[in-house]
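Severity: low
Component: inverse-folding endpoint
Summary: output formatting inconsistent between runs
Steps to reproduce: submit the following structure tokens with default settings.
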């Protein structure tokens, strides 16, 4: 009785092989690996982010103490600088002069 379950898989007429579709299996494997890598990178980012953000905040705080300003003043100045930089970096569309 056990031999029937251990027999090698064979193609059945008019049907896919009993082992399954190899292309579908390969696709499933690729998707599984991609999701595992994505999950790993997400977990890594969530682990590393607090380390870098706390270091950045410490540097900002020390710079504010050295300059004699509050952190809010620093963030306000930084926001103004970023807005001015974006406005300067954005290309201005030129209007085409009508041809004569």
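Observed output (run 2 of 3):
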């Amino acid at each position: 009785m056990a031999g029937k379950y251990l027999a090698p898989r064979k193609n059945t007429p008019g049907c896919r092989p009993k082992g399954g579709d190899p292309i579908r299996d390969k696709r499933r494997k690729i998707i599984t690996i991609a999701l595992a890598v994505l999950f790993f990178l997400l977990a890594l980012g969530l682990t590393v982010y607090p380390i870098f953000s706390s270091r950045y905040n410490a540097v900002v705080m020390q710079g504010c103490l050295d300059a004699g300003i509050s952190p809010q003043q620093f963030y306000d100045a930084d926001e103004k600088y970023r807005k001015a930089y974006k406005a300067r970096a954005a290309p201005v569309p030129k209007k085409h002069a009508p041809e004569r």
